[in-house]
Amino acid sequence: xxxxxxxxxxxxxxxxxxxxxxxxxxxxxxxxxxxxxxxxxxxxxxxxxxxxxxxxxxxxxxxxxxxxxxxxxxxxxxxxxxxxxxxxxxxxxxxxxxxxxxxxxxxxxxxxxxxxxxxxxxxxxxxxxxxxxxxxxxxxxxxxxxxxxxxxxxxxxxxxxxxxxxxxxxxxxxxxxxxxxxxxxxxxxxxxxxxxxxxxxxxxxxxxxxxxxxxxxxxxxxxxxxxxxxxxxxxxxxxxxxxxxxxxxxxxxxxxxxxxxxxxxxxxxxxxxxxxxxxxxxxxxxxxxxxxxxxxxxxxxxxxxxxxxxxxxxxxxxxxxxxxxxxxxxxxxxxxxxxxxxxxxxxxxxxxxxxxxxxxxxxxxxxxxxxxxxxxxxxxxxxxxxxxxxxxxxxxxxxxxxxxxxxxxxxxxxxxxxxxxxxxxxxxxxxxxxxxxxxxxxxxxxxxxxxxxxxxxxxxxxxxxxxxxxxxxxxxxxxxxxxxxxxxxxxxxxxx
Amino acid sequence: xxxxxxxxxxxxxxxxxxxxxxxxxxxxxxxxxxxxxxxxxxxxxxxxxxxxxxxxxxxxxxxxxxxxxxxxxxxxxxxxxxxxxxxxxxxxxxxxxxxxxxxxxxxxxxxxxxxxxxxxxxxxxxxxxxxxxxxxxxxxxxxxxxxxxxxxxxxxxxxxxxxxxxxxxxxxxxxxxxxxxxxxxxxxxxxxxxxxxxxxxxxxxxxxxxxxxxxxxxxxxxxxxxxxxxxxxxxxxxxxxxxxxxxxxxxxxxxxxxxxxxxxxxxxxxxxxxxxxxxxxxxxxxxxxxxxxxxxxxxxxxxxxxxxxxxxxxxxxxxxxxxxxxxxxxxxxxxxxxxxxxxxxxxxxxxxxxxxxxxxxxxxxxxxxxxxxxxxxxxxxxxxxxxxxxxxxxxxxxxxxxxxxxxxxxxxxxxxxxxxxxxxxxxxxxxxxxxxxxxxxxxxxxxxxxxxxxxxxxxxxxxxxxxxxxxxxxxxxxxxxxxxxxxxxxxxxxxxxxxxxxxxxxxxxxxxxxxxxxxxxxxxxxxxxxxxxxxxxxxxxxxx
Lengths: 496, 544
Hints:
The structure holds 2 protein chains of 2 kinds.
Chain A lengths: L6 H10 L4 E3 H8 L3 H13 L3 E13 L4 H11 L4 E2 H6 L4 H13 L3 E4 L5 E4 L6 H11 L12 H10 L2 E13 L1 H6 L11 E2 L4 H6 L6 E2 L18 H15 L3 E2 L5 E3 H4 L19 E6 L7 H12 L14 H5 E4 L4 H11 L4 E10 L11 E10 L5 H14 L5 E5 L5 E11 L4 E11 L1 H4 L8 E4 L4 H8 L12 H6 L7
Parallel strand pairs in A: 7-8, 9-13
Antiparallel strand pairs in A: 1-6, 2-6, 3-5, 4-5, 10-12, 11-12, 13-14, 14-18, 15-16, 16-17, 17-18
Helix pairs in contact in A: 4-6
Chain B lengths: L2 E5 H8 L3 H7 L6 E5 L3 E5 L10 H11 L11 E10 L9 E8 L5 H16 L8 E7 L7 E7 L3 E2 L8 E2 H7 L1 H6 L8 E6 L5 E4 L3 E2 L12 E7 L2 H17 L3 E8 L5 E3 L5 E4 L2 H8 L5 H10 L3 E3 L2 E4 L9 H12 L19 H15 L3 E2 L5 E2 L1 H4 L11 E2 L10 E2 L4 H9 L8 E12 L4 E12 L5 H16 L13 E11 L2 E9 L1 H6 L6 E7 H8 L1
Parallel strand pairs in B: 4-7, 4-14, 19-23
Antiparallel strand pairs in B: 1-3, 2-3, 5-13, 5-14, 6-13, 7-10, 8-9, 10-11, 11-12, 14-15, 16-18, 17-18, 20-22, 21-22, 23-24, 24-27, 25-26, 26-27
Helix pairs in contact in B: 4-7, 8-10, 9-10, 11-14
């Protein structure tokens, strides 16, 4: 046991051993250590139960000065002849001090005044001053306030008030060896620590000086300094999970710009130009910017005709006059289907699976369930013979990979898919089915103008709701609030 | 999306099903349940199904799905002998009108509430806030046919709905709530549309307000409904929805002769619309080998009819445009939950995007250096972007009509949003070391370019240029095994003399330095901050 003690600890134990108990100051002087060393070692020893430390707060009285009336009577008694008032007064530093002292001495009968001329001061009853004298002597001798005769309390209070006495607070620390300290400390300070190494150093290692010695054991339960590891953002962690789920299902990842002409964000998806979703209330249009090079040729012309009358798609179309100006406006994409559709239009592949996990933007006031920018994980699957059942199969599997075992598919509506399905998942927290994703089979009005002749399955889920469920949060803003305390302290493996 | 409230007691009688069954099946006709309480359920419907704007329409669809009443619903009409003459001068103002009458109706309070809610939803949806289409519902007995749809001047006077005194059209536009809200459709006009009866009594001033004379009350037994529009198809669609709903509510529909100059017509036309029924398209879209009988039964449950190779769609189904829509109607009638999922295995391996992989590895290196990753917003406020750094905002990129000024300008750098992030963390333990890999935007001659940056800030009492440079250099070495050079240069975020350009050969990648004390103060921070920002898009191109 004693080998686990620091040399300082052992020194203290051996100093205490003969007496059993010492005040802190004596301990410091007897060990010739500095106060900090002793204090630290006492902390260790006390946590090991080897010493007990007793802190005492005490208050004692102290004489600040001799009361002036006592000075005055002294002068009167000691003078070989009776003094006149003026002679006495001349021996005081100030007139105020004299008159206060004279007044008190006379009022208590210590002196008498023999009316002159000249007026002489004579000793009255000197015993009267003995009470004061003995009190001052007791205080000076260090007698505890509580041990003074109880009748003196008013006098003490008066003297404290007058500043003759003052009360001094003192603290004293007494260190006492405990039973376990007595047994452990019975080591001669002489031999303590000789076989222990405090810290390995390159020198000790090089010289081999460590051989035959042990490392001094330390308090392995003591607190270490607080440190915050560097960490990825929880949203990024989740995105990584989503990307891996997609890759495992044979998808190729896309990346692309956030700003697009309204044509790709809306028109190419058969969203009519006066659709409420295209309003400035919902969509961010860039101030004063548009794609002026876009003209009604090629794909743009096909899409325009599809809106107006269905073109060659077999549809009736929306039946309105399509305008290029509306299609040229630049928008912050409102969904990532803009990326997958553009890729589709460029590659015209007959069989492919692509996805993008990226930000989308909506003109929203931020609240607990709305953000102006958030992530979606859109994907499409292109291939001969694909149908609604494959869409259902993919979505069920995809959400299983993301930890949502229980999903349902309900019919819904989007201008660019038919049939359209909504994926809902059961939230144990709110005890309800909540929307997870829109999905569907692209309408011929979308695919045919782009030159695609095979079925295209598409979906565009958000990620934030899933994340709130996972982290047990209720407010989407918390995810992007940059709250360092959450980012640093959140538990990596806490899953709801 | 519009929301309507359905009362269980009333609705149960309309569909012949209990509360549990109703709640279970509503999602399968495409309605989202918003909330449920003891007496009612609130559902959200898509504006492409305006027939779901009342419980009458929802009940009609649900009766079909539950097999209680299937096939094409019938809407018998007879001629009302009422005509409306149309003033040619309205051609450039609000040219189209379509009307219907409904006789022998008895509306209770809930019926009235449902119809008013439908009217509002149609105004906001298909009606595009009454700009395109407006609906007026009147007490037919209060007026004397024939009616006229005519152009009047702003001095024309009548008593508007809810008013006691006659007002002129100009005052209605400038003084009433409706006038202020919907009046802008007449900006710059001198003539205004009015519907009046044979004696000059005003039914409506579309799309602003009805006349007081034809106000509908619980005692009203015969309705006259007008729909005016700037788009004939949209107007006819809206009238079809309203007329079929009123018919469900017990009204006997009467047609109205519209005397458009030169081309008179009778409204409403409630004949079903037709689309090709292509069984092969149905089967291939749904992946189900359905029999002809199954297809027909499913369509009947979706309230569609079939005539030979054509599907007959009720006139209110304005969402059916293409044969593929018929395939979905089959799926709904069959029951979406009876169509089982089939997972299609992939024949190709998946592939990560190499640039995304690059960004990811940069972020991993930064986190490994002890940094906390932040994800801040790309749309931020101009103050954080510009004035807090004392720089000009002349090249800012802003969005139109932002709802929040906090999200109105696209960032051109990460340092501002990172500084803003530090400013909300002044009470967290220091040192704070943060980074972000994020998208930034820059103005170009052609418009806007986008690139990805790495931004990093180190904030604590001893943060310095040297520490920032240490992280920059270690990151560069780890990414590409090359040293970047750092010639002195000025930058808006950093203090002069404590700032350098980050260069790789001829390429200028970014800047490193100690943040100016003015900016530290402007963001409310109390410790020195140093950091760097480099362009990863450019770096990636260099490394390729």
